[in-house]
Amino acid sequence: MSNYFVGIDLGGTRIKIGLVSGDVILSRKIVAADAAGGLAASLPVLEQEIDGLLQCAGTGVHALSGVGLAFPGIVDPVGQRILSTNQKYDDAMQVDVPGWVKKRWKVPFFIDNDARMAAVGEWKYGAARDTDNMVMMTIGTGIGSSAVIEGKVLRGRHFQAGVLGGHISIRYDGRPCNCGNIGCIEAYGSTWCLAETVRSAEDYAASVLAAAPVIDYYALFEAAAKGDRLAMRIRQECLDIWAAGVVNLIHAYDPEVVVIGGGVMSRPDELLPYITERVGRHAWTPWGKPAIRATALHSDAGILGVIYCLQHNI
Ligand SMILES: [Zn+2]
Q1: Distance, CA 189 to ligand 1 centroid (Å)?
Q2: Each residue of 116-162: pLDDT tens digit?
Q3: How high is the pLDDT of residue 1?
Q4: Ligand 1 center from residue 113 Cα (angstroms)
Q5: For residue 77, is pLDDT > 90?
Q6: Residues 6+ apart with CB under 8 A from 173
Q7: Who surrounds ion ligand 1 at CB < 5 A?
């Protein structure tokens, strides 16, 4: 009988869709995102992919028990509304996503912030299973965050508690961020600002990155590993920015475990030892040292988290 769920993690660069039964992802599909094109234009693509996953599993639409959506913005999961976006799917406040799910599949629906859902995934099934006090930081197109405190997923009066860790100022007189604030961590240490940081450097022309077709963290770390001076300097700056971000989250939420996820964690050995050492030196935690861990679930975290919330009504 029917016990299939579909979880969607709507990223700025990639959309991850998983067919879930219980706590197992039976099959998954990753498609390129068109965040600038908007959410309404993405729904037909999602519809096609969801039906495709059900078909491949040898089951029809009737076997679907629910759809969960992890969304990159501020989300009200109680009213099932997207409240605010920031340069990704900016039409989303006008899109009736629950109505779309109801019309197409007639099943329960759950929606919440993407980093919050990744945190739930890691807390229940991944790198933070051994604690009820954890925070997550995701480093990708933007920087996301979320917190679980004493076994409760932090949401807050306006549903934005915990999720704006990427928009904590690290430089009060720094760069404007696209959120409206100044000097946010995200304006210095995320993929959307990396290319500009690299290209505006004085020694850019002498760097191998000047010939790189795409400047992302993969290209930066590759160039740094080969001894490129500009790449090494910016990699170091980013490590210090991310460490500062982790310290901020520790000071704000008192976790026992910090999980770092996102695209950069495909190379955890290049990040974790340094960040752990620096955080250990600077975080004020007289009780001991929070464990700093790499994501265990990678791109499955948000899918498993949103389906957990849907199944358990939390
Ligand atoms: Zn910001």
Answers
A1: 11
A2: 999 999 999 999 999 999 999 999 989 999 999 999 999 999 999 99
A3: 47
A4: 16
A5: yes
A6: 182, 183
A7: 167, 177, 179, 181, 184
Which amino acid does the sequence have at 169?
S
Cα-to-centroid distance, 2 and ligand 1 (Å)? 42
Cα–ligand 1 centroid distance for 83 (angstroms): 16
Compute the chain's Rg from CA coordinates.
19
Whole-angstrom Cα distance, residue 120 to residue 163?
A: 13
The pair of structure tokens assigned to 210 is 């000047």
Å from CA of 166 to ligand 1 middle: 7
Nearest by Cα to 235 from 202, 194, 182 = 194
Residue 173 Cα to ligand 1 middle (Å) = 13
Ligand 1 centroid vs 17 CA: distance in angstroms? 27
Give CA–CA dist 65/22, Å, rounded.
11
Quote the mean pLDDT of the chain.
Answer: 96
Tell me the CA–centroid distance for residue 187 and ligand 1, in Å. 6
Per-residue pLDDT of 247-287, as tens digits, reads 999 999 999 999 999 989 988 999 999 999 999 999 999 99
CA of 289 to the centre of ligand 1 (A): 28
Q: Which domains does the chain have, with CATH numbers?
A: 4-118+300-312 (3.30.420.40), 130-296 (3.30.420.40)
Task: Kindly report the number of other CB atoms within 10 A of residue 280's CB atom.
Answer: 14
CA 11 to centroid of ligand 1, rounded, Å = 17
Contact 241, 189 (CB under 8 A): yes
